[in-house]
Structure formats: structure tokens, C-alpha cells
Amino acid sequence: MKLFAKLGLIGLVSGAAIATAVTPSYAQGFATRTEVYDPGTGNIADYRRDVTNALGTPQADRTRDFLSLGMGGSAIFSFASAENVDGYFSGSVTVWETTWGNKSRQSQYDERIEVFVGNNLNDVENWLSIGEIWNIRDGAFDTNQSDGSAGSGATLDIGNDDLYKYVRVVDLSQKRADGFDVNAIAVNPANAPAEAVPEPATIIGGLLALGGGALAKKCRNR
Ligand SMILES: [Ca+2]
Ligand SMILES: [Ca+2]
Ligand SMILES: [Ca+2]
Description:
By secondary structure, this protein is α+β, with helices and mostly antiparallel strands. The protein folds into two domains: 1-23 and 199-222; 25-192, Galactose-binding domain-like (Jelly Rolls, Sandwich), CATH 2.60.120.260. Helix content is 19%, strand content 24%. It contains two helices and ten strands, in the order αββββββββββα. Strands 1, 3, 5, 8 and 10 form a five-stranded antiparallel sheet that branches. α1 (3-22) runs antiparallel to α2. The site of one calcium ion has 8 residues, from β10. One calcium ion is lined by residues 97-99, 111, 135, 181.
């Protein structure tokens, strides 16, 4: 087989591989399970230790439906659902926080987390850090209570196309005794699958195959 004919074959194969990679329905939406809760130091009220408080949709301000991490504490969440039993996701992570007090300055209620994504629960120290979320600076809680909603949370892009199964949040708060208060957490596909839109990967795969075929033809003509 000529080299460029092989390239054409590679184009077909790689196109098929890309299509396979983007076809699964990624997990999206709110956390469905708290895998690990490892509270840090500080006086955390019992109702703030309920790990179900961080699951599902966020509540508007001044509800008690949040999970406090404690100073230096951490938690791991997963997102499996009936539509995606494995719970793999890509794209970005959104976190909603609850703060009841004065919200005008980060320095007054300084609560923050570092956010990690990973797949191996036994290897969390090597998970990928995707950045920090500060409760006030980054608007992780609702700053506009007039509509009664919980706001849009704070979002961090994962920054690659890999699939992950878990999100880990680690408290980095400097002042508040019970740390960052997780109201809700969600994962969002970078390109949410839409029924009516052609799969970009199918197009790319087709172009690769066409390009490889054209190259092979060009080679034979030389
Ligand atoms: Ca708070
Ligand atoms: Ca707190
Ligand atoms: Ca909640």
C-alpha cells in the first residue's frame, strides 16, 4: 500500500475514533452523589454536615440547604444519572455557594475552594486542578435576590476534552470558621449535544477521509 493511501485509511480510522469520542451523552447537570466528605477544622453545625445538601438544584439565599467544608476540608461529587450511568463529563464545572452575611467585600466573608477533576478515587493528589472559586469575588452565590433565584454560580472550564467522573473541592478559606458552603455543583458539556445539529466530529471525520483520499490520489498521479 502506498504511503498516501495509508494516510487515507488513517483519516477514516481517526475520523471514526473522534466520532466515537463525542457521541456518548455526557453527564450534565447537578451532582447526584457525594462520594467523600472530609470536613476540616472549625465548628460546623450539624445541619451543615448533611451531604445531600450539595446535591440537586441550588436553593436561593438564606436556606439551610448547603454543605460546609470546614477550614481545609474537602468533598468529592459524582454526576451519574439514568441517562448517563457512568457519569462521565467534560467541559466545565459550576459551583453555587451560600453566604448569609454582608456580601460586599471578599475580605469580610472570605470563603474559597480549589476545584479538581479526576477519575481515580485512590489518587486524588494527582487530580487536575482547574482553578479556584472565591465566594464573593467570583459571584458563587446569588448577588441579586430580587428574583428569588440562586443566581448562576461560578464556573471553571476544565480546559481539555478529556472525560472525568468526579469533582473534588478543597477549602482554602482564610477567615470563616466553617469554610466554604457548597449549595450545589454541576457539570456542563463544553458543547452540549443538540438533537438537530450535525455532529462536528462526523464532518471532521469525513473531511479527514476525503483529504486522505485526495492525497492518495495525488500520490498515484505523480
Ligand atoms: Ca458562605
Ligand atoms: Ca461558611
Ligand atoms: Ca443545596
